[in-house]
Amino acid sequence: MPSTDDWLNNPLGVVEGMFAASQNTPNSGWAAKAVAFFKDRLKEKDAHTWVPSLNDVPLHYLKPNSLVKFRCFIQDMFDPEFYMGTYEAVDPSTKAKVLRCGKYKDVTECGVDFNSRSTMTAERHTFYCVPIPGESPWVKEGYAGSSQARVVPSTSYAPTRQKRSYEEDDDDMDTDTQPQKQREPHTGPHSPTEPHGNGDCKRREKEAPSSQAASASHLDLNFPLPGEKGPSCLLKVYEEWDGFKLNEAVEVFGILSVSPALSALADEDASSSLLDPAGGMETAEEQRVHSPPASLVPRLHMLHAKPLPHNNPLLPAAGLEDNNSAFLSSTLREMAAVRAELLAYFTHVLLGDALAAEYLILHLVSNVYTRRDVLPLGKFTLNLSGCPAVASFTERFYQIIQQLVPSSYYLGMTLQNMNQMRLVPKKDYVANRLLSGALQLATNTSLFLDESQLEQGQLDTTGVRNVTALGNLISWQKVDYDFSYHQMEFPCNINVLIASEGRSLLPSDCQIHLQSQVAPPDLEAYLGGIQVHPQASQLNKFRMYLSVARQLDYSIADEVTKSVEDDFVDMRKDDPQSISAEDLHRMLVVARLLSLSLGQTSLSRDSWLRAKHVEMLRRSRMEQNKCVNGNEP
Amino acid sequence: MSSPLSTPGGRKRGRTTNPSTPSSEGPTSPPFQRRRGQDSSTGDLMPMPTSPPTDVLSPAAPLDNSLFSSPRPSVPPNEVDMSSPLMYGTPSSRVEGTPRSGVRGTPARQRPDLGSVSKAPQVDLQSDADGAVASEANAGQRHRKIFPLSLFIDPSSSEDENTGLDLNEPLYMQKLEEISVVGDPVLNVNCLHVQSFDAELYRQLICYPQEVIPTFDMAVNELFFERFPDSILEYQIQVRPYNALKTRNMRNLNPEDIDQLITISGMVIRTSQLIPEMQEAFFQCQVCAFSTRVEVDRGRIAEPAVCRHCNTTHSLALVHNRSLFSDKQMIKIQESPDDMPAGQTPHTTVVYAHNDLVDKVQPGDRINITGKRSFLASSFQPNGVPLVPAGVYRAVPMRANPRQSNVKSVYKTHIDVIHFRKTDEKRLHGLDDAEQKLFTEERVQTLKELAAKPDVYERLASALAPSIYEHEDIKKGILLQLFGGTRKDFSQTGRGNFRADVNILLCGDPGTSKSQLLQYVFNLVPRGQYTSGKGSSAVGLTAYVMKDPETRQLVLQTGALVLSDNGICCIDEFDKMSDSTRSVLHEVMEQQTLSIAKAGIICQLNARTSVLAAANPIESQWNPKKTTIENIQLPHTLLSRFDLIFLMLDPQDEAYDRRLAHHLVSLYYQSEEQLEEEFLDMAMLRDYIAYARTYINPKLSEEASQALIEAYVDMRKIGSGRGMVSAYPRQLESLIRLAEAHSKVRFSEKVETIDVEEAKRLHREALKQSATDPRTGFVDISILTTGMSATARKRREEVAQALKKVIQAKGKTPAMKYHTLLEDLRRQSETAITKEMFDEALRALSDEDYLTVTGKTVRLLA
């Protein structure tokens, strides 16, 4: 398939061809055509699976200037930049002036005529993208497994070479006169005839990962969550940049640019700015952040991007609304059955407490589906109190959740964490970037707060601020980013689950006290047994179930509305103190989630009664609990 | 060099007889973005002015073509050459070089803000575009000489810059006079004045500032030295235009704005240290000591390779301390948070300040910048020419690096500042609102249309926090708070400023969405602060002194109240606040200032903030057995500072419950679009408020004053009742404020009787005075929902008393039948007793713990 190879391996050639063809016809709109061409290609069946992904293929295996995709999260937006959209250059061979296109490129070709009248300046925006924070390992594997991209590491790559002796290696090192080349090994093609080609190859294998690790220490890649790995990239957006939002998860198809010239130019800029403060407008820090070495942070010139409604590889990527009715109806039919299995599994995990398991399911399918002025609707923060303080129950519990949801993060609320961690993103004006914080998370990430880790001590200023930020996140589903002179509010959609021993110090929509059915002496042994995972097929069913339920549409019919209203009035009549508007709010959310978890897209009378019943059980348990532990508020 | 002056003068006459060129469009974009070769832009350019026919005869006729329109390929190149900017040299040299008697050798100062330091690389002698520019500049200069700026009168001027000037005298002549006295050779020119004088000139100024502003300079200097021949200035006057109409959001800047005059607003986030920038390099030959000066061109200095004197090659060395430097400072500004789309991060722009503009701004200032957008190709280094960058000399040999031929295709852009204008300066000193929000014509029109509607008040009130159920009056109260009263200054008579801000306290049962209301308001207003009484200390509300970690200096960090100056400070959990914290509010809520005396810093800060507080009753649930005052339990001094105190009570009534349930359920199933239709959107509301706050200043009418007096007298009468919040002169003031705010809602410049009526009603409603039993001072919640009239209440009271008598007459019977009691009562009473009335009477008595009703039996308790 030559055409496939063409647009996959040499997309710039395609773009340039179109640009050249349009030269004689002004206003041909070639740029739009080029984008449409790639869009069409990607629409073809399975075409997107041929594109290698930056997420699972190491950077040094990818060909420069080829089409790649990246499943990423927009962490920061840099200032717009002006570049040479078209320019005139002198062809070195023919000495003729040619019009060139500067789109989708970082570096211009030789002999640019700066004074040419045909130079046209255009605008593009740069976004700093990182892999989706907290993405579970199974998601990564799932995506990597479905990729059909043929990644040929390098033409000269020979596995047998691995067995070379040490001395030979050292030998090579001595003879190598170009250390620069080693640092960017994946640039330019290496022909097998090159004298040091083999040694280079070997080194490429060994050094690429290590250099990444080494340089990561001096270059902060600004991942929202500590301990994250993966590539980050500078995404260059050429049109409709207003459509992108911070913290959005997108899948980008674009042209990979790792030209070493970029780093070289950056180096030079940096050195010149040291000598010449007037020439360099950027500080060294800023320079480092905005033009990091291309080998570490590749540039990706966007051709096409689509927002990701979810990051579950088991679901069709397009989302549920369109053209997947067959898939949807088949899953909907199964949902009740899967729910029963999941309930059984959770009951087992939660020490035999079926009610808590029920609420856990509701929590996991919750989603902020709309906002009414400041009020987020559909959020369901669960506080699971009464977690046993033994055998690291909470950690195990988190691991189970991590197995089921596409992205999650465990935040142990230790005093140290609260006092030292940066939860809220903060603008660093020196480096001119947004320093990420642990609360900069993508939509529908599960945040697991382990309050059982909290010990006695004092929260300092940062700690108080962090706790406030968590409280705001839970109550309003927003995070106030710190821009030092002012704060800016970013709405978010994060499922917060609080595991605590007593009632949580943070607000929550719903609190349930765990009632262990297991006798305390057997607890250790029981918890040890929890770790046993269900089978992979069952896990996949659960995963799919949770993601689908979260995305379903939901409505309430008029007659059910009426009966709900009647119910509320009746309940108030009996005892006005017992139920407030807030309780109705919660019951409506519970009813909604209950219906969705059963695969029903509208509220039925039965579900409403069931929701009422479940709520009643929970409330009576709370009362009970209050009586038992008199000291609890 | 004489070219500007020697151009035939026919045009001059043409322009004088025709001072107002027909102008319909604003300034059009310069031919930057467009390709120079194909000029498709002539269509949208200014129409040609009607010049008198004499012009056609003058030799300048062909030039005239390019004078009023932008680039035309038809202009012959030789005409262009004559007036190309390259013939002038830099602006400074032009001024110097032109023999002028009036200027008398006052040294010119270079204008790096306009200068060629960072001139775009596309200057081309053959370019017709630049030719046109130059001739336009020419025209500007001609023009300028007769520009009757000396006669410009701006009667509508209200700017603080013009304080002390007589508005009916020519404005700029007064300014020139001021220059001659003060000796500060800077003339700020409002671009709007230029525009109202001559739109064409304005367009030229906007599109070609680099060429037009120097001609302004020349004209002003000539004028100045004609008028004040004896004055001595340090250097020649520089003109600084500001307030270019094209005020731009930083986000909207695009390549078309390069090299244009723009005004943008933003916030300073970082300033660099002072950078000495070379203007003129001094070279000395090492061999023969021959010296030469080279001017900086486009940021670089062409190092002379050969000494002209002794012909030695590469013998010239730069002598630093004989070179000329100018001050320069890099400033980073960030777009202000108000004009940013949701979900995006703010953009930043690099700005260079030159000479005396250096160090004029500090990080954190909000400023309007007028300046010229320029750009530099990032690694612009054509091979083969040894260039020395301006600034510090670098002995860089020619780079034989092949990589250099590849150029990063990104430009760096910056803005050269011509004029700074701090927008928050006024906030500190002035009284009027600093909201310099600009409204488009259409927006103003829609706002006015909205204001003309008879139910605008209700509409706006319902648009406020639509997700919160009912509480119409509270929303109305908050609406009036958002608008605020009129600021009055009585400092002449020693009373200081009158508070114009309305303070509101919401007091009520838990779960009545008070916090939600606060959150909504906090999100609505541009300068709002939200704090919780439990979590805030007195220091957090006011200000504290801390050591800056970087500069190690003591700095004053302002708290919520100061930060919400000219905004609203929302305080939740007001009752949970400690008394000492609450006491700092006393000053803020009446004097609107905050006095601080700590750590050697004694100062008074402005805190013209409205306070919106929410509190629970003292027993966390409203106790109907207690009076309003007893329930709220806040010191009277503080309570009287609230203009409105709203009771938000849970009515516990079936009909209410049903409506509430319906409202809540509909929240969960109505789609977004359905709701959009029902209410005004938040942006509209915000604009409406901003407009009214900025432009409407209502005054009391005669009838309104009378109505206010009556209302106050009434309030005093009621106030003597038990357990009521009694009226003080403060309440009269707050009535005035509310009435003013209400007329602001109507966009009316006059407070009328209806405004007073509404203020009165709201004031009464707020405290549920209509529902308060005047005898006991208790609030009867059932009245709130059933809406029982005062007479009905009175009758009920009578029936209850009658019933009591009947029971007492029966003697010591612990229990009696319901029916017999009703019959007895009916027999005794003169008026007809319905069963409902009887029930009510029974309830009233059982409230008094006199009896209890169980089924059909009535038992006495006492």
Automatic annotation (TrEMBL), chain B:
Keywords: ATP-binding, Cell cycle, DNA replication, DNA-binding, Helicase, Hydrolase, Nucleotide-binding, Nucleus
Highest taxon above the source species: Eukaryota
Main location per the UniProt record: nucleus
Domain (MCM C-terminal AAA(+) ATPase) ranges: 456-664
Low complexity compositional bias, start-end: 16-27
Region: Disordered, residue numbers: 1-126
InterPro entries given in the database record: AAA+_ATPase, MCM, MCM_4, MCM_CS, MCM_dom, MCM_lid, MCM_N, MCM_OB
GO CC, one annotated term: MCM complex
Location in the cell: Nucleus
Record's catalysed reaction(s): ATP + H2O = ADP + phosphate + H(+)
Annotated CDD domains: MCM4 (cd17755)
Statement: the UniProt record of this protein carries the keyword Cytoplasm: no
EC number(s) reported in the record: 3.6.4.12
SMART domains noted in UniProt: AAA (SM00382), MCM (SM00350)
GO MF, any single term: ATP binding
Any one Gene Ontology BP term: double-strand break repair via break-induced replication
Family designation: Belongs to the MCM family.
Function of the protein: Acts as a component of the MCM2-7 complex (MCM complex) which is the replicative helicase essential for 'once per cell cycle' DNA replication initiation and elongation in eukaryotic cells. Core component of CDC45-MCM-GINS (CMG) helicase, the molecular machine that unwinds template DNA during replication, and around which the replisome is built.
Subunit note: Component of the MCM2-7 complex.
Protein's UniProt name: DNA replication licensing factor MCM4
Organism: Cyclopterus lumpus (Lumpsucker)
